[in-house]
Amino acid sequence: MRHLPRKQLASAAALTFAALAAHAEAPYQFGATPGKLPKDVVPVQYAAHLVPNIADSTFLGSESIEIDVLATTAKIMLNVDNIEIDAASLAGKNIGEIKLTPRIDQQQQTLSFHLEQPLAPGRYKLALKFHGLINREARGMFHVNYKVGNADKTMIATTMEPTDARRLLPSWDEPSFRAAFKLTVDLPAHLKAYSNTPIEKQEKIDGGLQRTWFGVTPKMPSYLVVLVAGELERVSAKQDGVDIGVVTTEGKRDSAAYPLAVSRDLLRYYNNYFGLPYPLAKLDQIAIPGGMNGAMENWGGIVYNEAALLYDPKKSPDSVRQTTFSINAHEVAHQWFGNLVTMAWWDNLWLNEGFASWMSTKATDHFHPEWRPYLDSLVERENVLNLDARKTTHPIQTPVLNELQAANAFDSITYGKGQAFLRMLEAYLGEEPFRKGIRAYMASHQYSNTTSADLWAALEKASGKPVEQLASDWTTQPGFPVVKVEQVCEDGKPQCRRRPTRNATASAAP
Ligand SMILES: [Zn+2]
Predict the structure, then answer these.
(1) For residue 353, how far is its CA from the centre of ligand 1 (angstroms)?
(2) Ligand 1 mean position to 332 CA, how many Å?
(3) Pick the catalytic residue: 161, 174, 331, 403?
(4) Is the pTM of this model over 0.85?
(5) Tens of pLDDT along the chain (510 residues)?
């Protein structure tokens, strides 16, 4: 998600986590992935129709969800939060259509249906009608108020990670429940709407509204769904067959030229690095005038606070150019690390965030070695070493039991230590063997999920070195090894020798 500015990184880590004993993690297996939702019913495709009432800060919704029942069960459970269900039914070959009674557990953020007769394995269709809120804060769908001259304007946007998709769509809102999404939205006809995929069709309907049908997404986690609408304009260009756009509120075209050029360069660079071309037809970089900090890497429709994306060559200082480049590079890297291959559960969030941070520095060094991004990253590394020497630190891979812990996992250990560790691992394995391993990892896990064990296996195979043995100690334990040396005089000559070591976490920071 959002690439946090360094100041926030420093303060976000003062959290208490229980230290994990080092353990061997298993490769990704859907059934063994942590989470609250039962694994015997899975979504295949959501067709969702949303009708936002922007003036009223509410929305109406309906969904038709194709689900697969994998094992006989009399219960269907998914997630909702701050949504009320108005009607529910289930249809299938052997059951016809039956009405369902929703049971919402607000604390657990779940929606359950208990059936009188168990469902046999097979394909069913769950139909829901519901209504919810357009939020003031950036959770689920939210509105952003801004001014153009003296005129007051309002637009809407969404941001879901980690667990707010359930505020817009009743959904299996855990990252290993990948499914396709197909959105339809009714909005005032003068507003432009953007989602993960290109528009398939638009039609004027009653009440001055326009209905917009978006294309179907690849199978993806729910936290990557996006919808943005407002009085917007878009500049675009084709790169490697992909329609790249920068979307802004009106009158900001001049500031969109730089991020558009950067996005084209990054897409070409990442297509080449990963050996797997960006898989969607379009990639929009959407700048919104407030409402959220940083950025969110929704597949095909990345949303940024406009300060993190736009660059006005006439007014912005060069430091803005560097910052926006680095954030853009982080979010576009997520289209592979995170979107194409997703961590199985939030305990492995570093597979998204550590990697996107590392890749951003690598891409910045490729295009702008004169900015010395690796030298800059040392500042962050020192900051993280300092935090990691405290008793309140936690391992890069950290247990996550609930929604709050998932949100708390977005801290400097996940981003900064994850990045520094990957840089060290790349240096140890060699740039080419490391890339070969990453390419194999992407190719074999695309449109699926992983644990760190899957990464170690790919790197081990590509490099011929014992990666798991070395790497898992770094990701499953807090702190870092400290090697102390001292100079002594032997036979009249100065000699360096090692002093006994202690784990930096166990000993307070010097
Ligand atoms: Zn990120």
Answers:
(1) 5
(2) 9
(3) 331
(4) yes
(5) 655 443 333 333 333 333 334 457 999 999 999 999 999 999 999 999 999 999 999 999 999 999 999 999 999 999 999 999 999 999 999 999 999 999 999 999 999 999 999 999 999 999 999 999 999 999 999 999 999 999 999 999 999 999 999 999 999 999 999 999 999 999 999 999 999 999 999 999 999 999 999 999 999 999 999 999 999 999 999 999 999 999 999 999 999 999 999 999 999 999 999 999 999 999 999 999 999 999 999 999 999 999 999 999 999 999 999 999 999 999 999 999 999 999 999 999 999 999 999 999 999 999 999 999 999 999 999 999 999 999 999 999 999 999 999 999 999 999 999 999 999 999 999 999 999 999 999 999 999 999 999 999 999 999 999 999 999 999 999 999 888 888 889 899 999 888 865 554 443 333
Phi, psi angles (nearest 5°) of residue 143: -110, 150
* List of domains in the chain: 6-27+339-487 (1.10.390.10)
Residue 130 makes CB contacts below 8 A (sequence gap 6+) with: 60, 61, 62, 63, 80, 83, 84, 85, 86, 170
| 331 is known as an active-site residue | yes
How many angstroms is it from 451 CA to the middle of ligand 1? Answer: 17
Ligand 1 centroid from CA 327, angstroms: 9
Distance, CA 296 to ligand 1 centroid (Å)? 7
Neighbour tally for 338: CB within 10 Å:
26
Contact 194, 158 (CB under 8 A): no
Taken as a whole, the chain contains a residue count of: 510
Structure tokens at 52: 């936002």
